[in-house]
Amino acid sequence: MSIGGTASTTAVLRVMNERAVFAEIFKLGKVSRPELAQATGLSKPTISMALADLERARLVRPIGLRTGNAGRAALLYEIRPQAGWVLAVDVGREFVRLALADLVGDIAARRDEHRKGGETPGELVAWLAGLARELVDEAGVDLADITLTVFGTPGIHDKETCSLQLAPNLPGWGRPGAIELLAGVAGEAPYLVENDVDLAAVGEGAYGLGQGMAHFALVWIGTGIGMGIVIDGKLYRGYQGAAGEISYMPVGEGDPLVNRGRGMLESVASADGVVALATRLGMRGVTSAKDVFDAARAGDDVARQVVAAEADHIAHALAGVIAVLDPEMVVLGGGIGAQAGDLLIGPVADGLRDLVALRVPMIRASTLGTEAVLLGAMAVGLTKARDLVFERAVAQAPPG
Amino acid sequence: MSIGGTASTTAVLRVMNERAVFAEIFKLGKVSRPELAQATGLSKPTISMALADLERARLVRPIGLRTGNAGRAALLYEIRPQAGWVLAVDVGREFVRLALADLVGDIAARRDEHRKGGETPGELVAWLAGLARELVDEAGVDLADITLTVFGTPGIHDKETCSLQLAPNLPGWGRPGAIELLAGVAGEAPYLVENDVDLAAVGEGAYGLGQGMAHFALVWIGTGIGMGIVIDGKLYRGYQGAAGEISYMPVGEGDPLVNRGRGMLESVASADGVVALATRLGMRGVTSAKDVFDAARAGDDVARQVVAAEADHIAHALAGVIAVLDPEMVVLGGGIGAQAGDLLIGPVADGLRDLVALRVPMIRASTLGTEAVLLGAMAVGLTKARDLVFERAVAQAPPG
DNA sequence: CGAACTTTGTTAGAGACCTTGCCAAATTTG
DNA sequence: CAAATTTGGCAAGGTCTCTAACAAAGTTCG
């Protein structure tokens, strides 16, 4: 029902207005009272009241006078950065990345660590906890100051069993309750677990090519294949959280059943698939997809053939995605998407022209590279943390 | 930014509360003041004030006393049905259907007319306008009483050019500005034009199998193929309004370029595709898909083979859809989906088990049949009309 | 059949919030 | 240094909602 809205009393009205002021300060940065009055439509006394409350809750702070204009100098306010801290953790297949940022998103400390591989969940969590403590020390804050932690991992997070599905590279995490171990990484703070590719899409929307775009998709091609979907500016997860798991899309020739267990698209289009095809066509000494792409750039005919085949596979998969979602843009990310973007974007877009009913959406290579997941986790965390700190502050100290 | 909300004054608060009361009456039907107070959390005096305002605006009316319980009899209120009228129009390929309903959704008059075919847009609009006038007369209301008209048509509605794309069966409607002709069908009221399959999905969500479901898709298989997508309970249209145009999905064998101009999935899975395959396999006297399905039910081996192939094509297309969207349910509708649901549901679900990564969503046959589009148009219209009449009433007569 | 009980609806008083209008303070401009 | 301009604060007034008490109208039980 579109007619909705909850019934409210005047106290709720006050909270709504304070929230609006808080949000406006985030949007505008350093801002004066008259500017806030202008932006929110509220009167000067109301703005002053709201600011007094927010300052008492230590969510904002006065930052000094703005002089230079005619008239009395305005006292500027800004978000108090230390009002919240967000820990973002990218638990990748080969690397672990962590970043600690304050409430305005400035990164105070970060780590990139190579994984040894084969850790048990307990070992992994212990390691991450140690790294988190290092970050917190480095930033000069306390573990208890962390507002929220966001983890990005492969696989999908099953809320019923608290386990990870479809994450073959994280052994032991499929067991019921395993994910709850992550609660121990950073103090008592709440935590979120999201699919890594989904987060990369959010990152692309917050800091990359998807800024201000309502509907787009990020296709992640590397050792595996996945897709993150942003609809109406928000991450779309699907019913089971499996939206965008396109590795199983039926693409390419051959008996689909042969490829059971690994997705059909994944088996032909992932890094391994590229290497396999190159070898099959007679290339020598190829150990990684990067070798193939480098050879193609150098003019190797067989390598170019492999690239063309790869582009064709991607185009066919994207044709299905586009037919279903009709996005404004498709971003290619992940190892292959980012490394070979220059080689693939053109042929993929060309191929799509024959496969798509209407206009072909923009096809772009991600500009965020390996940072996408971490940035997405940070974006999710910051958004959520802003709500959390406000909710807490308003709940604790209600009236004036 | 998740922290949002607009700043408000107390006058806005009053409107919010009145809107909440209005919505609650829609939800509960005949309802007393104490029940409204309970449901909205507002106090008795506030409920009385809101009801007085709503009654003065002629949006609700007292309906009598509820006696029987202990204590004083409660005065019941309900939505005044005549507070708004919605005209729903399904402009199909072979039929035109119209329904006129009051604000609570009771259908006061309707028509089902066979199309002559080949009308110009002007002729079609004139015909529809005549039918609309008949409906209005039959219901005993005036053309000016119509709050909103919703049209469902094939093709997608391009807002920039005001034309219909991808609607080969509606000649003349691709011209820029053509759609604006529809404004003349029902007085001065605002109107909406939506894709017919999208509306069918909305109908399924409002009156059919999708009730209370957040994410589902309706696949429409008939003379053409399309899909309507509901995400978070709302219709998802995509960037260009082409979301769910799966007729072009690359499915099945053969050179895709051969099928250019007609979608690849559409060419093999639509009604024509079924007839074509049956003929190719040696069936005689087959003129419609229904013949094939009847023969399959009667035990004809070749027909069963055609059905199996059809199910296989649908399963492969759905595998792509499910990989992207991860819906809770997929409904099969349209001529083939509804008529042959009994034959297809099982094999399609079985086929999907080998093509889908996680749990296969529910696969169901639509229960709404040919009514789906009209019901969807009505659902869209009613939702919008409820907003419209409230907005108008509150804007006209603000305070008490 | 009537008194006690229960629920409904209204009225009065009070509290919370926002706004307008006015005035003081602080800074630039001439 | 005075005029102009902008900022910030204060007081008065209006709107909205809530609580509490009361009146009205039905049922239940003796």
Structural write-up:
Two copies of one chain form a homodimer. The first copy, chain A, is built from twelve helices and 15 strands. The first copy, chain A, is an alpha/beta fold and 400 residues long. The first copy, chain A, has three domains: 10-79, Arc Repressor Mutant, subunit A; 83-200 and 373-391, Nucleotidyltransferase, domain 5 (2-Layer Sandwich); 210-367, Nucleotidyltransferase, domain 5, CATH 3.30.420. A five-stranded mixed sheet of chain A has the order 6-5-4-7-10, sandwiched between helices. In chain A, strands 13-12-11-14-15 form a five-stranded mixed sheet. In chain A, strand 11 and strand 12 (225-231) form a beta hairpin. In chain A, helix 1 crosses helix 3 (44-56), helix 5 crosses helix 12 (372-396) and helix 8 (289-298) crosses helix 9. The two termini of chain A are 36 Å apart. Chains A and B meet through helix 1, strand 12, helix 9 and helix 12 of A and helix 1, strand 12, helix 9 and helix 12 of B. The structure holds a DNA duplex (30 and 30 nucleotides).
